[in-house]
Design brief:
Rossmann fold; DNA-binding transcription factor activity; LacI family DNA-binding transcriptional regulator; transcription regulation; DNA-binding; HTH_LacI
C-alpha cells in the first residue's frame, strides 16, 4: 500500500481542496510541524498550535483519516448531523434517512450539535475526514468555519428541515409560512390577544422563523403587538406549563397561546387540567410538529404537522442520486405542512 499523499480533489467551486501544505504555508511552519500537530499535539508549542489551528480554520482544511492509496476513495458512510437525538422530530427524520440509505448499501454516522454551531463545525471536520460519500446536515445556518469546510468539500451535501439557498441540495418546509398559517387559524377562530411562547429561540432559530410568520399574520390583521415569551431553558413539557402560568399571571387578557412546539403545548394542556383552566374556553392552545402525544391529550391539540420522515426519505433519495451522478430535480424541495385542527382551539 502506498504511503504517498493522494492528489487533492477539486471542491464544489472547481478549486483544489486545501491540503496539509496549504495549512503549513498559511501558518508559516513546516508540513512536518502540521503533521505533528495532528499526531502528537502535546509535542507542539502552544504558540505554534494556535497558528496551526487558525490556519486550518482559515483555509477550511479537513484531515483525511484514511491513509495511503485508500485516501482518494469514498466510503459507504454518510454522516447525518442533527440538533438532538432525544427529540422525536429528528428520530422520525433519521428513520426516513436510514431506510433509504440502508436499502442502497450505505450506513449512517450520527452526530448531534445540541443546537451549537461551534459543535457542528467540530463534528463536520471529524466526520468528513473519514471519506464520507455525502453529508446530511440540519439547517441552512452555519458558522463561517463550517461554511468554509463545506464549500471546499467535493461530495454531495443536503441541508434539511428548512428552505432557502443551500450549499448544494435542500429539503424541508417553510417555517415562516407555517407560523403564519397557525396564527391565521387562531385569528379566524376569533382570538385576538395571541401570545407566542418558545424557549432558547436564539438557538432554535426555526422556531424563531415561525414567530416571524406569526407576527406577520397579526400585522396583516391590523394587530401591531405580537407578545413573545422566550424562556431561557428548554425543558419541553415543563416549559409549556411554566409558560402557561406566567402568561396567565402577567397577561390575563391573553386568549390564545401559539407554542413553538407540541411538547410545550401539551405541557400547557396538562398543566391547565391541574389548574382548573378550561381549554379552549379560558385560553386556546396551539402547537407545531404534529407529534403523536398531541392526539392523546384532552382536548386534542391543534397543530401543524411537519413531514418529518418524508423529509428524511426525499433528502436521502436526492443525495443518492447526486452520488450516482443521476438527475436530482429541483435543488430546493418544499414538502409543505398540514394544519390539523383539534379541540384546543
Amino acid at each position: 500500500m502506498s504511503n504517498q499523499t493522494p492528489s487533492p480533489r477539486r471542491n464544489r467551486k472547481g478549486a483544489m481542496q486545501p491540503t496539509l501544505n496549504d495549512v503549513a504555508r498559511e501558518a508559516g511552519v513546516s508540513s512536518i510541524t502540521v503533521s505533528r500537530y495532528f499526531t502528537s499535539p502535546d509535542n507542539v508549542r502552544e504558540a505554534t498550535r494556535i497558528k496551526v489551528e487558525a490556519a486550518i480554520e482559515k483555509v477550511g482544511y479537513v484531515r483525511n483519516m484514511i491513509a495511503g492509496s485508500l485516501a482518494s476513495a469514498t466510503s459507504r458512510v454518510i454522516p447525518v448531523i442533527v440538533p438532538s437525538l432525544s427529540n422525536v422530530v429528528f428520530i422520525d427524520v433519521i428513520k426516513g434517512l436510514q431506510d433509504e440509505f440502508e436499502a442502497h448499501g450505505y450506513q449512517l454516522l450520527l452526530g448531534k450539535t445540541d443546537y451549537d454551531l461551534t459543535r457542528e463545525t467540530q463534528l463536520i471536520r471529524t466526520f468528513l475526514g473519514w471519506s464520507a460519500a455525502g453529508l446530511v446536515v440540519t439547517g441552512l445556518r452555519h458558522d463561517a468555519a463550517t461554511r468554509q469546510i463545506l464549500e471546499n468539500w467535493n461530495q454531495p451535501i443536503v441541508e434539511i428541515m428548512e428552505l432557502g439557498e443551500g450549499l448544494d441540495l435542500n429539503v424541508g418546509m417553510d417555517h415562516v409560512a407555517a407560523g403564519r398559517a397557525m396564527t391565521e387559524h387562531l385569528l379566524a377562530r376569533g382570538y385576538r390577544d395571541i401570545h407566542f411562547a418558545g424557549a432558547e429561540l436564539d438557538r432554535d432559530y426555526r422556531a424563531a422563523m415561525r414567530y416571524t410568520g406569526h407576527r406577520e399574520a397579526l400585522a396583516a390583521a391590523g394587530i401591531e403587538e405580537a407578545p413573545l415569551l422566550d424562556l431561557p431553558v428548554r425543558q419541553q413539557m415543563t416549559s409549556g406549563a411554566q409558560a402557561l402560568e406566567r402568561i396567565r399571571d402577567q397577561h390575563p387578557e391573553c386568549d390564545a397561546i401559539h407554542f413553538a412546539n407540541d411538547d410545550m403545548a401539551c405541557g400547557a394542556i396538562l398543566a391547565a387540567s391541574r389548574l382548573g383552566i378550561r381549554i379552549p374556553d379560558d385560553i386556546a392552545i396551539a402547537g407545531f410538529n404534529g407529534l403523536p402525544i398531541g392526539e392523546h391529550v384532552t382536548p386534542q391539540l391543534t397543530t401543524i404537522i411537519s413531514p418529518r420522515e418524508q423529509i428524511g426519505r426525499v433528502a436521502a433519495r436526492k443525495l443518492l442520486a447526486r452520488i450516482n451522478g443521476e438527475p436530482v430535480g429541483e435543488l430546493s424541495h418544499d414538502l409543505g405542512f398540514t394544519l390539523r385542527v383539534g379541540g384546543s382551539t
